[in-house]
Amino acid sequence: MNDRTRALSPPARIVVVGIGNLLLGDDGLGVHALWKLRETLPDPRIEYLDGGTVGLGLLPYLEDATHVLFLDAVDTPDGLRVGEGMVDLPLAGAPADLGLRVSPHDAGLPELVATLRLRRGSRPLTLRLLGAPPSELGVSTELSEPAERALVRVVGQAVTLLRGWLDQDLGEAA
Amino acid sequence: MAHVVVDPVSRIEEHLRIEAEVEGGKITSAHSSCTLCQGLEKVLVGRDPRDAWAFTQRICGVCAVVHACASVRAVEDALGIEIPPLAQAFRNLLIASQSVRDHAMHFYQLHAMDWVNVPSALRADTKKTSELARTLSPWPGSSAAYFKDVLAKLERFAPAGRSGLFGNAYGDHPAYRLSPELNLLVLAHSLEALDWQRDVVRIQTLLGGPGPHPDFLVGGVPFSVGATPPAAVSAANLAEIGSCVERIHAFVEQVYVPDLLAVAGAYEEWFSLGAGVGNLLSYGELPEGQTNEASRFFLPRGAILDRNLSEVLDVNPDDPREANETQAHARAASPRWKGNPMEVGPLARMLVAYARGHAGVKEKVDAVLGRFRVKPDALFSTLGRNAARGIEAWLLAEHLGALHRRITGLVEAGRTETFQPARWDPKSWPASCRGVGRLEAPRGSLVHRAAIRNQKIERYEIVVPSTWNAGPADAAGRPGPFEAALAGTPVHDPREPVEIWRTVHSFDPCLACACHVVGARGETLAEVKAR
Known about the structure:
A: alpha/beta, five-stranded mixed sheet, about 30% helix, B: about 15% strand
């Protein structure tokens, strides 16, 4: 068990969030990637968060972060060559509409990002999404082989990115 | 005649789909279908039953507590395990705080936007908003300067012509009636609600571990309690939980409930719309004794048929002749109780409690009825469902205080056992056994069924609340709750059916979180740079 008495606020300034449903095959890519990344780069300055499909419930864990890296399975537009099957998106633009239609369960990454930006206002916030297209989305706790290969690339890219963030002078970022 | 199809923006087709016929400005018939939790149970077959909760919890990130708790209850039932009273009280605290949070978040993040007009809020006079806020509640965040600040934030994120953060796709639709000031007030509180949920999260962190998926344990709760180290939950932690509980309660009582009543006041005809099937079912919840000791549940078990509040029928969930809950894998079947379609959720729980004479529920329900000068029967409606949800949040927010006192009382009396070890070892288990875990989740009755053979899960089945509510008409042609509720609803413009959303949302339907892969296609928030 991790330390239960650690205060929720302020969390670490760099947060990596793995997103996805672990019961639906490659949809869980983000969470599998998170676990792998946590083993690969266990730096105490980085907080690793298993975000599952928690949606807007993740907000309290992210509020004081200055850098957030999301890991997730990512659909890509038709015809887009993804090269080695990885997607890297800086989430810098204006927030999307909050597309909730039926239930708060609908809230996904765009809604989370939009809400984060709204609440952060003008305080600096760097958001990035790393992921790969899913191949198989059936009921399973395992990744498909293509997704396993993609996971290796995603983790490699994440390590590079995170080391870059750690090297920045975080004292100036706030 | 117009045919309207409402399908959520979801990557799974027909997860929940509603089709309605609109004629003469009203819905004449509606058909709903949903396929929920199908097949997810198969990941459990062959696993250690003591781990099942960690998998079922992943079905739904919004409901991580309830799916885990229902699972441990099912396994405990199968193995004949009774958990210690302190563990029961802690679980109740988690369940109740989850419900309070879910109800408030459902209102502020989603349902409020069916009644609140975002563009109108941007035209509000902040001084008048402040005056309005002060007439509604003693809640401190109510100065004109505060609302000016909120406006500035909203304007930044709701550029002209777009609905921005709140996804109100219908803009200045004539179905919206609130003043600009009340619109702004509710939106300001939507932002505050995002802060407020941190206290619920804090309780879950202290009792369930640091991430958003709280830990559970077959046989109890996964931590020890004591005033001195190395207890995982200390007296200081318990005191902190007490403070969280106070803040949770204050927001519900001073913000959520007053807002709900103020909004409802502008839409009173919705007490006559969205009635549904008039049958309500609650398995009861928050055990004060043993897990299955229904006579000692804080929220009582029972059923009501045909809107008859003078007779609460007893429910025996273990009698297969009463309930057909079998998951509708062939989309044709729906759960039925004694052959009746039943609505589950806060309305069911509150009216069963009301009809059984629960003093706390009666007081709040009667206060709301008095405010709008309607009879209890009016609660069978879209607005009634909202009122019931708010009342339940209010009731449970108060009950958190009672649960906290029970916990501290048990600890002070030295009754600090949190785990029953007697059946932990699989060698003590029978060769085969079966159990059921029931739980009244925020959205209604949830059931997990587990069959264990040779120490592994042989079969597992889950029926979620929305299966009752969103299920289609049965072979006898009797409509399900959604369908019945939508019939007769006026629709101003079939291309912008906000009225349909009002009734559908009043049920707070579940969707399994399932596949939610981020769509890079058409994303406006990022430039796609693939590599």
